[in-house]
Specification:
disordered N terminus
């Protein structure tokens, strides 16, 4: 090691005898302690990264499962939408045919007479059963 004097440009070599064996061992112990501490920190970081990796892997699997489930439900919704469209078309056709039938049977007036007579027949039927 080389140390300089304050204010001068002359340097002198420091002998190793100036340091005791205890201080050199203490320095080695300090370095070894620092290395052990760093290795421990790296081991803890590795454990943390392993846990994080496992969590990310689980999240990835869960997201794939959710994606598959959403795909199945999307297909079911599309099928249901198609069925509803077909049912709506069928209902429109039945409504159209009912209107044509009412017109062919003489209009709404004749239809109302038929409904009224049907209700009267139903009331008479219940009267006969309960009397």
């Amino acid at each position: 090691m080389v140390f300089g004097k304050k204010g001068s440009k002359e340097y002198s070599k420091v002998s190793l005898d100036d340091f005791s064996d205890d201080s050199s061992n203490g320095g080695d112990d300090f370095v070894e302690s620092g290395i052990r501490t760093q290795q421990e920190l790296l081991r803890k970081q590795d454990e943390g990264l392993d846990m994080l990796s496992a969590s990310v892997e689980r999240l990835g699997q869960m997201s794939m499962g959710i994606s598959e489930e959403l795909g199945h439900q999307n297909n079911m919704l599309e099928a249901m939408e198609t069925d509803l469209d077909e049912a709506g078309d069928d209902l429109d056709m039945v409504t159209r045919k009912t209107k044509e039938f009412i017109k062919m049977s003489g209009g709404e007036r004749n239809c109302m007479v038929i409904v009224a007579l049907s209700l009267i027949a139903l009331v008479l039927f219940f009267l006969i059963l309960y009397v």
